[in-house]
Amino acid sequence: MEAPRARVGGDGRVSAAANRPLRILLSQQARAQLEPAIAQLMGARAFELLAIESAVAQGRADVDIAFISRDVTGLSTKHELAPSLQACYDVLRQSAGLKWVHIHSAGADRPIYQELRGRGVTITTSSGANAEVVAQTALAGLLALARRFPQLMAAQREHRWAPLLAGQLPRDLGGQTAVLVGWGPIGQRIGAFLRLLGLQLIVVRNRAAPAQDGVQMVTFDAFTQVLPRADWLLLACPLTDQTRHLVDARALAALPRGAGLINVARGEVVVESDVIDALRTGQLGGAFLDVFEHEPLAADSPLWDLPQVIVTPHSAGHSDGNAPRVTGMFLDNLRRWCAGEPLLNGVV
């Protein structure tokens, strides 16, 4: 006999009798978009789609699964939370039966996710959903620095004709060397772009591996050893105990003078004060920074005004195509959950 399917009405009540439906927490927007697809996946299994707004209003603490889409986190950062996001996190914390949370981001370093993992909740990410977009942004930052766009745009604002001639000639990118930290979906796409431009590539990753198609692979133990060869240092790694403050004064001093830094990973991978010092002295020739130790970046940070720096507000991965890709990953994992299959992109 087919089990009744529980649904939630606009007031949050279950409109069909059910014996302990699977309770799925998601935003009102995601619920409106995904209800037909979720109903098809669930089949005869009873379920309740619980909008975050209703869960907060009702003081619910009985969630089994949660889908944290981009509209849930909104403009909040992991350092500064809007009250609505804090309330959502409270629902997760208070739901003793919470088993699985799928998040829209590739990284799971927000404290709430670490806290939930600590109590046995499975966290899955949307790793790969924005890889192409982040890689394109990293490439744009590198090209802008290589072609002296900050300098040219400063001249434009001053209505000053300043061709890049004589001692200001940019170097050809072909033949330069990039040290790329991280070899996940984002790192691999960045690597492909760099090689198309003729750069030599050294990849720093967790596990040793032989060279692949001319790309040298080293572990973190060799990080400082390869830095003297780096015209460009690109960061596309997750934030872990191993990568936190990886790029400090010692690492920056090991780079050739005038090297460029691209960070589309996490702000805490670098020691920000050391990066500022290296930029001021010219040890770093330029930097494209999308992430920071504290976000939003403070209005009085020197990074805003350093002439060879491009600052963007943690937006390297933003694109109108991300939401459908993230949704597809969540639905695929929900199908796997219902079938008892292993989930993809689980945080270990």
Please give a structural write-up.
This protein is α/β, with parallel strands linked by helices and 348 residues long. The protein has 2 domains: 22-128 and 321-339, NAD(P)-binding Rossmann-like Domain (Rossmann fold, 3-Layer(aba) Sandwich); 131-311, Rossmann fold (3-Layer(aba) Sandwich), CATH 3.40.50.720. It contains 12 helices and 12 strands. The chain has helices at 28-42, 52-58, 70-73, 83-94, 111-118, 131-146, 149-157, 185-196, 223-226, 249-254, 272-281, 322-339, and strands at 22-26, 47-51, 65-68, 100-103, 122-124, 177-181, 200-205, 216-219, 232-235, 259-263, 284-289, 309-311. A 7-stranded parallel beta sheet has the order 8-7-6-9-10-11-12. Helix 8 links the parallel strand 6 and strand 7 (200-205). Helix 1 (28-42) runs parallel beside helix 12 (322-339), helix 2 crosses helix 4 (83-94) and helix 6 (131-146) crosses helix 8. Mean pLDDT is 94; it is low at 1-18.
As laid out across the biggest beta sheet, the strand order is 8-7-6-9-10-11-12
Main structural class: alpha/beta
Report mean pLDDT, rounded to a whole number: 94
Low-confidence stretches: 1-18
For the terminal residues, how far apart are their CA atoms? 39 Å
The backbone outline, from C-alpha atoms, is elongated
CATH superfamily of the largest domain: NAD(P)-binding Rossmann-like Domain
Quick one: CATH class of the largest domain? Answer: Alpha Beta
Order of helices and strands: EHEHEHHEHEHHEHEEHEHEHEEH
CATH fold assignment of the largest domain = Rossmann fold
Q: What CATH architecture of the largest domain do you see?
A: 3-Layer(aba) Sandwich
Helix content: 25-40%
Name the beta content range. 15-25%
